[in-house]
Amino acid sequence: MRYGICQLSIVPMRAEPSDRSELVNQVLYGEHFKVVELRKNWSRVKLSHDKYEGWIDNKQYIEITEDEYAFAKAKPLQLVTDPVQFVTTNKKELLTIVLGASVGNLNILKATYDGDFQSDKKQKKHLIETALLYMKSPYLWGGRTIFGIDCSGFTQMVYRLNGYFLKRDASQQASQGEALSFIEESEPGDLAFFDNAEGLITHVGIIMENNYIIHAHGEVRIDRLDHSGIYNPHTRSHTHKLRVIKKII
């Protein structure tokens, strides 16, 4: 088995081993993974933190040993809490990193970092504060950053930055936690899931106070939430049909 770590700010993870293939996820600086299939120019990798798999360019990561992988996996998370920060490489070059990047394994990457990071679990009330850091971030299928993010990437990153685990996709996240019967039972930070005409869960957002919801739809935005789903006050229409509300914490 081979192992790797991301030494660049944001690396695309694709459905197939091609630059033209669909973006399914992103690997952020400092995240480590197993290499489950190695080809000449591409590697299929499995991320350590959520087991998500996809293809990344071999030029966009560095190989690490099994011992280094085990060390990185055992070490508590240290995630960047500023929208944009910098690390200094061993060549004295500045590298831009983003909110949610992992800076706990800089000894492996031979880099230094002087900014703030989050390592402990926070109380549930802090979820909304974190979510607001992503406001106006453009929607990007497969994205996980303030420069582009999808609905489940948004919820996963908000929970991750507060010390809690969510799976990657909305349909996977819907399998977690405790289902609530009514919106009135929910608290800020709970998740609302929405399905399509075929009954498949395709969207997720974070419930706020007073029947508002923050979610990634075109951009990270705040809309109204009612028993039918998400109501956009600008278009005066419902954009998503409510399926279930889940309490994760």
Short description:
The chain has helices spanning 66-74, 106-109, 126-132, 151-160, 170-173; strands spanning 2-5, 10-14, 23-28, 32-38, 42-47, 53-57, 62-64, 79-80, 84-88, 94-98, 117-118, 144-145, 148-149, 178-180, 191-195, 201-207, 212-217, 219-225, 229-232, 237-247. With 249 residues, the chain is mainly beta.
Please explain how this structure is put together.
The chain has five helices and 20 strands. It folds into two domains: 2-118, SH3 Domains (SH3 type barrels); 126-247, endopeptidase fold (from Nostoc punctiforme) (Alpha-Beta Complex), CATH 3.90.1720.10. The strands form six sheets. Strands 15-16-17-18-19-20 form a six-stranded antiparallel beta barrel. α3 (126-132) packs across α4. With 249 residues, it is mostly beta strands. The model has no long low-confidence stretch (mean pLDDT 96). Helices cover 14% and strands 39% of the residues.
List keywords for this structure.
249 residues; SH3 type barrels; endopeptidase fold (from Nostoc punctiforme); 2 domains; 5 helices
| Count of discrete domains | 2
Q: What is the CATH homologous superfamily assignment of the largest domain?
A: endopeptidase domain like (from Nostoc punctiforme)
> What oligomerization state is this entry in?
single chain
Let me know the average pLDDT.
96
Number of strands: 20
List the helices and strands and how they pair.
Blueprint lengths: L1 E4 L4 E5 L8 E6 L3 E7 L3 E6 L5 E5 L4 E3 L1 H9 L4 E2 L3 E5 L5 E5 L7 H4 L7 E2 L7 H7 L11 E2 L2 E2 L1 H10 L9 H4 L4 E3 L10 E5 L5 E7 L4 E6 L1 E7 L3 E4 L4 E11 L2
Antiparallel strand pairs: 1-4, 1-7, 2-3, 4-5, 5-6, 8-11, 9-10, 12-13, 14-20, 15-16, 15-20, 16-17, 17-18, 18-19, 19-20
